[in-house]
Structures are given as structure tokens and as C-alpha cells.
Design goal:
The protein has 418 residues and is α/β, with parallel strands linked by helices. It contains seven helices and 27 strands. It binds adenosine monophosphate and magnesium ion. The site of magnesium ion has 5 residues, from loops.
Amino acid sequence: MPEMISLEEARALVLAQVKALPAETVPVLEAVGRVAAADLRSDIDIAPFAHSAMDGFALRAEEIAQASADAPVELDVVAEIAAGDVFEGSIEAGQCVRIMTGAPVPDAADSVVKYEIVDVVTGDGKAGSRVAFAAPTAVRSNVRDAGEEARAGEVVVGCGEVIGTAGVGFLAGCGIVEVPTHRKPRVAVIAIGSELVPPTEVPGPGKIRNSNSYALAACVQAAGGVPVVLPIVEDTHEALAAAVRAAAADYDFVVTSGGASNGDFDFIKPVVEELGQLLMTTVNMRPGKAQTFGLVDGTPVFGLPGNPAAAYVGFEMIVRPALRKMQGFSRFERPVVKARLAHDAKKKDPRRIFLRSTLSKDADGAYVATPAKNQSSGLFGPIQRSNCMVVLPEGLESRTAGSLVECVLLDVNEEVVL
Ligand code: AMP
Ligand code: MG
């Protein structure tokens, strides 16, 4: 196992160890934002019948082919068709029918002229009236054809497609009220550290609150998974081995934070090695060099570092893609934009650096990235106030204010193209 690998290698290594979870069937409304696990087909034509796109008059276009402002053509209104009605009568020469939006266009008509451009000559414009047309109309004008969107039996949402909010309506219209989608990964979140107390407690001397588990649970949830925050584990080999073994048996994925370095009380690496296969320990990035990954009884176990920002970046960059793959997603890169740096960024560490930053636009509409003043890996606050991470590539090349840098957007879905 190589000592330090690149972020791309780390991501590929982890992605190679996970696959899409089996499908479950969920109500269509619960499928929003999830991936269809099979081709979904409409049971009927959409639209089921040719219908009017306007309130107006249905007629044969040839009837008013000669109509003009100087010589309007008058027709008798012989019926009225509301949405939901079916008109079975005939339309003879010199006749038209009043029609409402969504009502079936009779076979005897081939065009709809909208109400607003028709003059009522006698009556109230309903059946029994006489109306005048001052211009011709095209065949199929304002007529929405049967099967315009899909034919019965046709695939309307393909396997692998992400179902959007509109897709839920589309599927409902196709009679699809239940959708097969990949099961959400159930993710165990374990905080490791003898200094940690739950956030409900006021920490005593030498103790701090476990904040990582909550950020990581939120990240799991945002990635589409189901987080379960497990009890804090003290810094002993035995306690951690017991917790990891139990979690690996019960969950689809295990995420720990803390104890991932080489200190006297850092046990995630030896525990994964003892219980299963240790596949990765160190990634060439900052924050978050210590990133442990392996399998325990075939379950992926990811040991994030304890420092909050390091844990967060490791999750964002490596764990999130894995959880997405388990749900059938095929895009793993957050949207990236190029922006001008608001101030100099010194590069003293050759690792790839992620600077927690704020992306905004200047007066000309160009993107500007302002890295947070405090880039300590121990803090969540600067990430809370950021909306992107500026990427400074491997090497020692510092950047000056105004230079173009890549910014990975936070909390924006991988499907978004910018
Ligand atoms: P470690 O990776 O265990 O050496 O921890 C690095 C730093 O992160 C230490 O200052 C820890 O106290 C802190 N830390 C570890 N776990 C957590 C946690 N769950 N929540 C907040 N801070 C933590
Ligand atoms: Mg520790």
C-alpha cells in the first residue's frame, strides 16, 4: 500500500469498493432527487387525446382561409366543449364550436382560434352565437396532439436518471405512483476520542463537545444517505475494534472521525487492519492528510481525521462520491467555477490545499473568491460562512490577488453544470 496517494487515486480506490445498492420501491414523491433503478414506462399516451391549448373556437382551418380584417368570415357556434367533456356531434360548413383549454379537439376540427382575437357578432359567444374571424389560422394551431410527450409503453424516465421535481409530476401523469430506486445507504457515524462529550453536556476539564458526528450526519443526509450517530468511542484499541466490528455488521458504510494519525492513541488504522483490509491511509491534501479507508467484513469503513475541517473536506471529497455511487448516481464532481482571488494566497505546503472561501461577483459580474482569514483545520465556523473551497494545486507556487483559481462549490449538486 503506497504511503501517500493523490485525491483522484483515493476517490477511485474508494469508488471501486462500492456499488449501487439494491432497488426498493418508494412512493413517487419520495423518489425526488433519487435515481431511477429501472426504465419507467407510461401506461397511456401522454397527452391521451388531442386537446385545445387555448380557450377559443375549434374549426376547420379551410373555413376561414380567406378571412381578413376587411372581409371577416362569420361562423355559427353550434356547441360548447368544456375540459372533461367529449363532443360527439359534427361540425358542418359555416360552423365552429366554442372550446375550453384542455378539452378534446373534435375530429371534425383541425385548428383552434383563441377567444381574444374573435369578434362576437350576435349572442354571448357561446352555443347559438355568431362569431367573426378577421384572419386565417394554421392547421393544428393551438392543438396539442395525442402522444406529444410519450406513447403508451414508451420509456419516460430511463434507468439511471435523477428524478427531479418536474419528473415527479411527469411520472404521476404516466400512472407511475411507485418508483424503483436504489436503497439509501445506512451510514454509521462514530466519533473517536476520549476527550469527547455529547453536545448536550457542558464539557468538563480537558473535554470538548463531539461536533464532528453532527456535521458528518448532516453531510450523510445531504448526500442522500441515512445517518445513525453511534455512541462516542474512547481511545483504546479494544473499544474501537468492538465498535467498528459491530457497526460494519449492521450498516452499509461506517464513517469514523478522530484517531486517524500516528499518535499514541490513534487506533483506526490498526483496527481496520486487524478486522479486515486496510486500503488507504494518507491523501496528498490539506486539510485532511490522514484519511483511512478499508473493508471490514466487506463493509466500507472510512476513518476521517478528528480536526473538524479535515473531517469535513475528507467527507466532501471522498466519502460523498462513494455514498452517491451506492445510490446509483453517476456524477461525483461538485460544480467548479474559475474566480479571481481577492487577496494573495501563500503556498507553504506542497499538498493540494482547499481554502474555505466565499464566492461572490464584482461590479462587472466576474467571480471573486475570498478565502476565510482563519484556515485552521480545527474550526467549523469558517466553513459555515463559506460557500466554496478554493483549490491550490500540488506544489509550492503561491497565488497573488487577481489570479484565476478553481473554486469547488459547496452544497450544490453534482448534476448542476456551470
Ligand atoms: P485526532 O484526529 O483524534 O488527533 O483529533 C484531532 C483534533 O480534532 C483534536 O483536537 C481533537 O480533540 C479534535 N476532534 C476529534 N474528534 C472530534 C469530534 N468528534 N468533534 C470535534 N473535535 C474533534
Ligand atoms: Mg484523537
